[in-house]
Amino acid sequence: MSDKLIIGFDLCDTYTQIAIYDEDKKEVENVKLTDDLEEIPTTICKVRRRDEWKIGAAACEMALFGSGIAVDKLLRLVKKGGYSTLEGTTYQASDLLELYIREAFEYVTAKYSKDIDKVVFTVKELDCVLVNCIVESAVKAGVDKDSVMVISHTESFLYYLLRQPAENLANYSVLFDLSSEGLSYYECQIQRGVSPQIAQAKVTELEEGFSLDILESEPGKKLADNIFSACVDRQFSGKIISNVYMTGRGLLGIQEWGSKSLKTICNRRRVFLDNAMFAKGAVWAAKMAEGSEPVVPYVMICDGRIWASVSINMVVAGAPKTLTLISAGQRWYDTKSHTEFILDDADSIDINITPAGVKKSTLKRITLGEFPERPNKTTRVGMDLEFTSETELLVTLKDMGFGELFASSGVVLRREISL
Fold first, then answer.
1. Which runs of consecutive H residues, i.e. helices, occur in 253-342?
2. What is the CATH number of domain 308-418?
3. What is the CATH number of domain 4-151?
4. Lowest-pLDDT range of 40-54, 284-298, 337-351
5. What are 42-78's pLDDT values in tens digits?
6. Count of beta carbons in the 10 Å neighbourhood of residue 399
7. SS3 for 224?
């Protein structure tokens, strides 16, 4: 029995879900802050006239009865660098999110009487400001930085899916997520005719999303069924879909309002409903990162991961060689590369962009006209690569001179390459 916790933390603007890996049962278990609620409102509340905080349903209840002041939509507030003033004190959004995460951690560690070994947060959209804030918050709450990871919902779905039986990976596997934040459609396919094999997933935010309030009346339920049914028909058209997954508060009760939609969804397909899908996927990501779960035999391409490899052509010991600097499938926000080389009759650098599963590369050329003129093979170049988004690569080239013969000119070139 492990004395450490492996946690999946699905963090959304409206609700949070937490799951842990139960070493005794060898399965993932949802964490409830109250007896009956798996969804935890992403709300924090300051108790009036006291330096005390509550989160989740307790925070909402306290604010409702006037004994505290609540702040919600914390992720949105963090992204825009916002703040909130409570009883005359101004709190940055990052501080409030840190308090929220700290309170959640304290509850989970107390409930299971264990410390945290690994935690993977999953969010709908990866944003550099938000990712950094989440990692810093977890570290300030006592978790080692190397034990914290942030992934997208798309990647979390992939991890969840790849834990399913092999027959569930045939053809397309899709996911509908209906929440108060809208309707999202995820599509995953395993590409087996390439080496290595590729597990690729993408998400589309659908216009057919509707307010969950309409499900509270019979006419509203009928309207929701018509809207969702038309959406399913459109997304399924022309595709061989073997498995359909559903998650989100809006789809929990689909049996009560979605008879027309279910008729299409369940037609010769496997159908699965799991409201904690993203949190569970994050748990499997955590177990893999922690080393207790086998690494998936696929290059994963999805939100948060780079869809192409980056390489340069070189000559090593007289023989041409392609040096891969960044591989497809790495997470863009924590991927960097540094290499050094000597220019050999060259006034430019050619960078190859090769999409996963494709042999043909696209060449991106960076001219070095600002570098000083020197005899051939007497200019050493330092090249750093990092991504500013999934599709934008920042290339930094520095003239490093050549030992005692030529001092560095200090010239630094920065170029952005769009994949």
1. 254-257, 259-265, 277-290
2. 2.60.34.10
3. 3.30.420.40
4. 284-298
5. 999 999 989 899 999 999 999 999 999 999 999 999 9
6. 23
7. helix
For residue 13, the SS3 value is coil
Listed by start position, the domains of the chain span 4-151, 156-277, 308-418
CA 412, 129, 83, 16: dihedral to nearest 10 degrees? 180
283 contacts 28 by C-beta, under 8 angstroms: yes
Residues in the chain: 419
Distance CA 36, CA 151 (A): 27
Give yes or no for a contact between 103 and 109, defined as CB atoms under 8 angstroms apart: no
* Secondary structure (H, E, C), 339-391: EEEECCCCCEEEEEEEECCCCCCEEEEEECCCCCCCCCCCCEEEEEEEECCCC
Number of other residues whose CB lies within 10 A of the CB of residue 48: 13
Q: For residues 19 and 300, give the distance between their C-alpha atoms in angstroms, rounded to a whole number.
A: 23
- The answer to whether the beta carbons of residues 152 and 186 sit under 8 Å apart is no
Fold agreement (4-151, 308-418): no
CATH of domain 156-277: 3.30.420
In the numeric block, which tokens belong to residue 132?
A: 């950094």
pTM of the full structure:
0.89
